[in-house]
Write a structure and sequence with these properties.
A hairpin with a 4-residue loop joins strand 3 (about 35-40) and strand 4. Strands 1-2-7-4-3-8 form a six-stranded antiparallel beta barrel. With about 140 residues, the protein is an alpha+beta fold. The protein is about 15% helix and about 45% strand. The longest helix is centred in the C-terminal third of the chain and has 14 residues, at about 115-125.
Length: about 140
């Protein structure tokens, strides 16, 4: 249970490691859903972020939650307590960002894959939504 990989429509793999110490329940709930696919769009209002509300429901409590993120971090809106602006929303920050409401920060891109993530974010910004596939790292 170390992380997951995102596969793009262009067959590029981007790896992420879980924040197991900071958000163990969110990591476990997310891992239980793998594999899945979801369409991600760009969200300029909250910074350099791609987001989705079409991924499976991640039933988790609020932990390691903040509106402030670092580039490469992955967030998901907790179900408990329900957050009007972020419940069932998932975001991946490829640059600086600040969310609209607190989300659970539960993973971060591998250093070696940061450029792939930035390219993905820019592609979605310029070309529109993209379906991404999430899988367990083997």
């Amino acid at each position: 249970m170390n992380g997951f990989v995102v596969k793009t429509e262009n067959n590029i793999s981007i790896r992420f490691s879980f924040y197991l110490q900071e958000a163990p329940k969110t990591c476990a709930a997310f891992l239980a859903l793998l594999p899945f696919s979801a369409t991600f769009f760009h969200a300029r209002i909250s910074g350099n972020e791609i987001w989705s509300d079409t991924q499976p429901l991640v039933d988790c409590i609020q932990e390691n939650a903040s509106i402030y993120t670092n580039p490469g971090e992955v967030v998901i809106g907790p179900q408990h307590p329900a957050r009007a602006k972020t419940s069932n929303c998932m975001g991946i920050y490829y640059g600086e960002g600040k969310g609209l409401d607190a989300c659970n920060i539960f993973a971060k891109v591998f250093d070696e894959d940061k450029l792939f993530l930035k390219q993905l974010g820019n592609d979605i910004w310029q070309k529109g939504g993209q379906k991404l596939r999430f899988e367990n790292i083997l």
